[in-house]
Amino acid sequence: DETEFRNFIVWLEDQKIRHYKIEDRGNLRNIHSDDWPKSFEKYMKDVNCPFKIQERQETVDWLLGLAVRLEYGDNADKYKDSTPDGAKNTDNTAKNAEPLINLDVNNPDFKAGVMALANLLQIQRHDDYLVMLKAIRILVQERLTQEAIAKASQSKEGLPVALEKHILGFDTGDAVLNEAAQILRLLHIEELRELQTKINEAIVAVQAIIADPKTDHRLGKVGR
C-alpha cells in the first residue's frame, strides 16, 4: 500500500535513521503530496542508498539494514553480549537432530511406508528396510530437494558477475580497458577450471584401471 510505504519510510527516518534534522523532514513527512516521490528520491541520494526508488523491495531491505546498524551503534554495549534466540534452544535442537532415533524398524506401518516410498521412487527392494530408507534419503537429497532441483534447472549461461567485486591487480588508466581486462581474466579462470576438471577425470579413470588389474600368469604380465 502506497500510504503504508510512505509512513514506513517516515517512521524509519524519524525513529531510527535520523539523517535529517527535525526541521528538514517536512517534505518527507508530507506523504500526501504529489511531490513526495521526488522528496523520497532526494532522501535516497542523501543517505547514499545504491538502489533506485522503483526498486522498492531492495530499498526497504537496505534502509532496514542501515537502521539496524545505527541502532546497534547507538546501543553497542546493550547488544554486544546478546545471544540469538536459536542458541537458547540448543538442547532442544540436539534432541530433535535425529528424529528417527527411536524409530521401531519392525513396525508394520514403518515397513509399509518405506515400501510405498520405494515403489513411488522406483528404488530396488531390499530385505533390510533401513537400507531402503537410506537409499530413499540419498535419492531425495541428491535429486528432489529444492536446491537440487534448482541446480538441475539452472541455465548453462551462468549467473551475472559483479565486476567491481573482482580485483584486477593493475590499472591500465582507462576504465573501459580495466573492465575488459577483468572480463578476460574471469574467462581465463573459467577455462582453467574446466581444464582442471578434465585432468581430474582423467586421473580418476587411470587410477580405476591401475587399481583393478587383470593378471595373466601364462604371459607373465599384469594389466589389461
What keyword list fits this structure?
2% strand; 224 residues; single chain; mainly alpha; RNA transcription, translation and transport factor protein; two-stranded antiparallel sheet; 2 strands
In short:
It comes from Ciconia maguari. The chain has 224 residues and is mainly alpha-helical.
Describe what this molecule looks like in 3D.
- The chain has a two-stranded antiparallel sheet.
- α8 packs across α9 (129-144).
- 4% of the residues are buried.
- With 224 residues, it is mainly alpha-helical.
- The protein has eleven helices and two strands, in the order αααααααααααββ.
- The termini are far apart.
- The chain has three domains: 2-81, no CATH class; 105-154, no CATH class; 164-211.
- The protein has helices spanning 2-17, 26-29, 36-46, 56-74, 76-79, 85-88, 90-96, 108-121, 129-144, 146-153, 175-211; strands at residues 215-216, 221-222.
